[in-house]
Design a protein that fits this description.
The structure is a single chain. This protein is mostly beta strands and 234 residues long. The protein is built from two helices and 15 strands. The N terminus is likely disordered.
């Protein structure tokens, strides 16, 4: 036994590496009569400023639009910043990268509409990204068998996530951004797949990973524009 104790004393401290900070919403609390129809989540993200902060080697950070189904399986359409100055949008499912958007590239001053659709009839999760300035649209369809995945929203997360492969700490933001137009929606006309009814995301609550660290960001100016929540990440 004393050999095991000595080993544990000498063993390097396990790196947590993974942190998140933002806000979460549960749609059934605000829309009890409609939430079971929600199949679309959308936001706008604008890149305000490149803060020039260093991202640690082999690390990356994400600005999330994330929706969980009732099985707590997440679909995400994220802006990602890497240690090697690669900045891009990525479709993610169950924590695994699925598709890097190559037509719509994040630029300082640019505004982008992110949309995730649950298309149960086709067994597809659709990720749609639009550059609101150039009007360029890029779509990725991910086939997910509806026999194993429940196409029903449960919770939405908006905020920032860090992966730090070098130290047991989150790090400074790369971009200051403005997030707006957070909404749920559903198709309201079976003959027109693009006909949608939208509902502003309701009450959101602070959500973080629970690690006893301070986060080197602030979420400021929480407000509503046209009824939709908006805020800045600085």
């Amino acid at each position: 036994m004393h050999f095991l104790i000595e080993y544990l004393r000498r063993k390097p401290k396990l790196l947590i590496m993974h942190y998140w900070y933002g806000c979460i919403d549960t749609p059934n609390s605000d829309y009890p009569d409609d939430f079971d129809k929600f199949r679309v989540v959308v936001d706008n993200i604008k890149l305000i400023k490149d803060l020039g902060n260093f991202i640690p080697d082999k690390s990356w950070m994400l600005y999330l639009l994330e929706i969980f189904n009732v099985q707590k399986q997440p679909a995400e359409l994220n802006l990602i910043c890497q240690f090697d100055n690669q900045n891009y949008f990525e479709a993610i499912f169950r924590g695994t990268n699925q598709y890097r958007f190559r037509k719509v590239i994040p630029q300082i001053g640019g505004s982008y509409r992110r949309e995730i659709r649950f298309k149960e009839d086709e067994s597809i999760i659709q990720y749609c990204l639009q550059d609101l300035d150039t009007k360029t649209v890029e779509i990725y369809d991910l086939i997910v068998d509806k026999r194993t995945f429940v196409y029903q929203f449960s919770q939405c997360f908006t905020g920032v996530e860090w992966w730090n492969k070098m130290r047991n700490l989150p790090y400074q933001l790369r971009f200051e951004v403005f997030v707006s137009n957070l909404m749920y929606g559903y198709n309201d006309d079976a003959l027109d797949p693009n006909s949608m009814t939208f509902f502003p995301i309701g009450k959101i609550f602070e959500n973080k990973d629970g690690n006893p660290v301070s986060y080197p960001i602030t979420i400021e100016g929480m407000d509503r524009i046209d009824g939709c929540i908006c805020y800045s990440i600085k």
